[in-house]
What does this fold into?
Amino acid sequence: MASLVLGVAGAAIGGPLLGFGAIGASLGFLAGSTIGTLIDPQRLEGPRLTDLKLQTSSYGAPIPIVYGTVRIAGNVIDQTDLTEHEHTEGGKGGGPEVTTYSYSASIDVLLCEGPIIGIRRVWADSRLVYDASPTAEQTGQIEFTLYPGDEEQLPDPTFEARHGAGNVPAYRGSADVVFTDLDRTPFGNRLPLFTVEVVAKGH
It folds into this structure.
């Protein structure tokens, strides 16, 4: 704002007031806006979401029974609201200060009847984001907590912190996976479709 105000003032001084015409006005505007930028650097903001609520969990979806190794799509059974993260860069030396926003959320995805042995691979929107094979590249993989569905598993602490101790089921007998504070930026700030390659014994 200061750069615009001082730019207009500089154009008025360099043009009509001092009698230098259009060239003086242009030079005056340039000088005034430069001084204004140094006094009050320009601030630019990237797009941000206005609604930090996510879709609710659905009820009544069947729970698969897995034999061997099967790739399945899980059912989201719980999730937190979006958390906004602000990132500011620049603003030094007269340059603009740019603020961008990213969003994350925690998601609990029910996979199948448990117990299972483990998870071999995970895809998000058909993009491989986790691979447990020995030859796979380990950098950049999505982290998660697997609950195999045995009778000893406990409630997830992320969702206990959200709902309160004693208010979160342990989902014993059902295998589920929790993605804690999942960055939504690579997925256009939306929940991707997760498919999971589950390894299980015969029941």
